[in-house]
Amino acid sequence: MTKRVLLYATLAAGAFVAVFPYLLVVLTAFKTQAQLSSTEPWLPGLPPTTANLTEILGGEFPRYILNTVAMTALLTAGQLVFTTFAAYAFARLRFRGREVLFWLYVATMMVPGAVTVIPLFLIMRELGLVNTWYGLLAPYVLGTPYGIFLMRQFFKGLPAGLEEAARIDGAGPLTILVRILLPLCRPALGTLTIITVISSWNSFLWPLIVTSGDETKVVTVAIASLKVGIGVDYNLMMAGGLIALAPMVAVFIFFQKYIVRSVVLTGLK
């Protein structure tokens, strides 16, 4: 009983630490400037106000949300298509240098993303893609080493007899991939989709560097830009954070089964 009490107490403390920042976001978003300075951060402001949400939604913020939705959708679609084809080639097709090329590509996962930001920006500048949708999407829309590694491992775990039977029936590589293997890869595709959606929605550093206009500004950069002068309008920032957080909460609520499956799948692979 003592061990069980200690276990649940530890879990409760961990859950509180994880949830507390989100609670502060919600409470601060519904406070006025006067309430923010006169009440403790963990206490609600009475009466609560929706002025912060009204103010931020009355400006350009809805446009930034649409930009983020478009970026997330395009990156996710690109990841699913190009990652699947590349992973299938590395897993099933035989060509010279396949293993060397694959492991060299996967080795780039060891390089911190911050190291490649400046070279990527210089490339985009030389191509004239700075502050454009092409520059925003180009580095990540064609797939990532992690996604290709995940899908390749899943493809390699599928029975080879399925492909052999399909080849006997006259199916080519594209038919085998689309009509036989992809329906079996729904758990892996779901995992890749969830990971890509979350990482794309929360992307901050690359959009901050490569974009500067409202046409391509995403929600994370918009929230950071709410800092004015030497002060910070925490009420507006938290209202923007609450709006940006809502879609991810919805994703968790409706797809929590797949999120748990993705954790299991990525852990096993």
From TrEMBL:
Q: GO CC annotations?
A: plasma membrane
Give the UniProt subcellular location, in the record's own words: Cell membrane
Record flagged with keyword Cell membrane: yes
Does this entry carry the keyword Membrane?
yes
Q: Which residues form the signal peptide?
A: none
Where does the UniProt entry say this protein principally localizes? membrane
What keywords appear on the UniProt entry?
Cell membrane, Membrane, Sugar transport, Transmembrane, Transmembrane helix, Transport
Q: Where are the transmembrane segments?
A: 7-30, 64-90, 102-124, 136-155, 236-255
Q: Which residues form the ABC transmembrane type-1 domain?
A: 65-255
Where do the coiled-coil regions begin and end? Answer: none
Per the record, the GO terms for biological process are: transmembrane transport
Q: How does it sit in the membrane?
A: Multi-pass membrane protein
Pfam families listed in its UniProt record? BPD_transp_1
Q: Which Gene3D superfamilies match?
A: MetI-like
The text of the family note is: Belongs to the binding-protein-dependent transport system permease family.
Q: What is this protein called?
A: Multiple sugar transport system permease protein
Source organism lineage? Bacteria, Bacillati, Actinomycetota, Actinomycetes, Streptosporangiales
